[in-house]
Amino acid sequence: MQFKLKSINSLAITMMLLFALIILFFSGFLDFPVAHSSIPSAFNKSLLPPKFKSGSDPFKDLFDAYNKWDSQVGCKNFRLKNQELKNGSSLQEDVFGELNCGVLKLNHVGVLVKGWTWLPDNLDNLYSCRCGLSCLWTKSGVLVDKPDAVLFETTTPPLMRKTGDPLRVYMDLEAGRKRSGADDIFISYHAKDDVQATYAGGLFHNNRNYQLSSSKNNDVLVYWSSSRCLPKRNQLAKSLLRLLPHHSFGKCLNNVGGRDMALSLYPECAKDPNTPPIWWDHLHCAMSHYKFVLSIENTETESYVTEKLFYALDSGAVPIYFGAPNVWDFVPPHSIIDGSKFGSMEELASYVKALANDPVAYAEYHAWRRCGVLGNYQKTRAASLDTLPCRLCEAVSKRGGSNAKL
């Protein structure tokens, strides 16, 4: 009887030890090496600095990462690597620089903004444009009682233009852009339309808190916020975020306990402590605490690159992007992680984790802004809403405003 009791105890102890080892392994406490590289085969390794080593040096301070990159790579090498950037065919050519002044028929253009939803009030102004053209952009019919053009955004022009009427301008920046059928000038995000307006400007959200953190989270890598829970986008986000430590602040997949929890985590991001918080006021500041921001477009279509990507770039994070197949026509070189270039979500997650622990490889994603290598991003900003008033007034002047032929 005594012998059997000892045998049972030995077996129980052995089973308990085995069970404990299994728990430690799956909890990550025991980190056994894997046989394959954490860099996915689908990704171009030549884009990485030569000393990229998975998990080599976890970091929190962004300036420290910059210093290490400066010593190991540097702006000279980065400029050489990106000196032959192709011009983005997805952006209109005549967005800055010289203009053939002879094509202008009016010296002054007045634009009355009538049908609108989110065009910012701070666009209202009197502008001095190229070739001495002055441009009045306003929502006030008192300030411009005889406009040369009337702009409708989301609301289609009510009638076709008659002789002597101001030009009808219609703007549609949504993915399924479509002319109204009653417009003389069509504005969209696409270069093939009359006037292009990208989402990359600053005037649309210039009242926000842009205080950015130089300290990055090491335990939570990804920021995600979405409150329009589209099934396809939600499923894509879920498939990646299940593999990465993250904070989700919107209605969709929220894991922080509410939409305004960002201010609880980062009180310094409050724009005005005495007023109720509005999520977009502290958006950029909150994003800046994370190494990565997941940016997924509502629709994947050519040239439809929205604020979801540009907010992340403005915040000093690295966007993980899913959207327009020609996204590189709009962004700086080596500034984003294009999720479509990976064979699986597991490969993408492995790459993100490895990048988060390598300050030199991570700092390479910020080299464009530190070395002045903007590439196509110069035109993207030049074709934004910030410059739309002058560019539209130039288009109206070329046609002669209300004197334009039907």
From TrEMBL:
Pathway of action: Protein modification; protein glycosylation
EC number: 2.4.1.-
Cellular location(s): Golgi apparatus, Golgi stack membrane
Topology relative to the membrane: Single-pass type II membrane protein
Major location (coarse): Golgi
Ranges of residues in domain Fucosyltransferase C-terminal: 219-399
GO cellular component: Golgi cisterna membrane
GO molecular function, one term: alpha-(1->3)-fucosyltransferase activity
Source domain of life: Eukaryota
Keywords on record: Glycosyltransferase, Golgi apparatus, Membrane, Transferase, Transmembrane
PANTHER family associated with the record: ALPHA- 1,3 -FUCOSYLTRANSFERASE, ALPHA-(1,3)-FUCOSYLTRANSFERASE 10
Family label: Belongs to the glycosyltransferase 10 family.
Name this polypeptide is given: Fucosyltransferase
Species of origin: Heracleum sosnowskyi
Species classification: Eukaryota, Viridiplantae, Streptophyta, Embryophyta, Tracheophyta
